[in-house]
Write a structure and sequence with these properties.
eight-stranded antiparallel β-sheet; 14 strands; four-stranded antiparallel β-sheet; alpha+beta
């Protein structure tokens, strides 16, 4: 039986990977064998921040973006491209890591459990801060580019797409007044900025499509694309709905980091 301290460490890692309280609760019951009272006591003992009474979403909209990034001109939508954000050797190292540990990607859902669906057929590798020596560097560079605190970010994910695999159009924010919003924003809040970096060139297919912007982005090794999922007042910006088209020849690899509304811990 794992100690409470070990369980707390595992829960914290899972929360930083974007796991929600509901899915962790079920895992502690089914996989660890804790009874509901023990689960409640363990989760209540975690030093996680509660939802603030007020969230200033304007600060996310007004953050000073690095001058190395280029803003694309779209009304009411903050979206940027950063050429050569990540060097080739780092891209290759992350690709090797994804090939070793990536598992079937899941999708959010009203029950909050781990769900696989043909709507998303890619694979995902969660990369903890201390799992690889280059991860702290990438985390720091992403947050400096956005001028946001590292503590606001989820752990980095690597997504791997084999030929024919895809993620149909979706939003990174959670819709208000839905079970998903209640479940997935209890810890760390709404997703604010999405930061994505392509790890390889894809010669055919694999584009990221923003249909409401009439924007198609072709994967290019080391290039970052990032955007604010929200309007300055905090409302979800539907124009950020996007789709990962399937690569036709060769694999596609990207890393993604989502920033949230508040830090998991002080």
């Amino acid at each position: 039986m794992m100690t409470d301290q070990k369980l707390k460490e595992l829960i914290t890692r899972a929360a930083l990977r974007g796991s929600n309280k509901t899915s962790i609760y079920m895992a502690l019951e089914k996989m660890v064998g804790l009874n509901p009272d023990a689960v409640d006591e363990l989760l209540d003992s975690l030093p996680f921040r509660r939802r603030p009474w007020f969230i200033n979403y304007l600060k996310f909209a007004n953050t000073t973006i690095s001058p190395s990034a280029t803003k694309l001109s779209y009304p009411l939508t903050q979206i940027y491209v950063y050429e050569d954000f990540l060097r080739k050797s780092y891209c290759m190292e992350l690709i090797s890591l994804a090939d070793e540990i990536a598992k079937r990607s899941s999708v959010s859902n009203p029950s909050g459990d781990v769900k696989h669906d043909d709507y998303r057929t890619s694979s995902t590798a969660d990369i903890d801060y201390d799992e690889n020596k280059i991860v702290p560097y990438i985390n720091n560079k992403i947050c400096k580019t956005l001028n946001l605190k590292e503590s606001l970010g989820e752990a980095i994910q690597i997504q791997k797409y084999l030929p024919g695999e895809y993620y149909k159009e979706h939003n990174d924010y959670y819709h208000w007044f839905t079970p998903e919003h209640d479940i997935y924003t209890e810890w760390m809040g709404q997703r604010t900025w999405t930061f994505m970096v392509y790890l390889n060139d894809v010669h055919e297919g694999g584009e990221t499509i923003f249909k409401h912007l009439n924007l198609k982005i072709k994967p290019k090794r080391g290039m970052a694309v990032f955007w604010n999922n929200l309007l300055p007042v905090g409302f979800p910006n539907y124009k950020t709905i996007h789709e990962a088209k399937p690569p036709i020849s060769g694999n596609k690899y990207v890393i993604t980091k989502w920033m949230r509304s508040w830090s998991l811990m002080d």
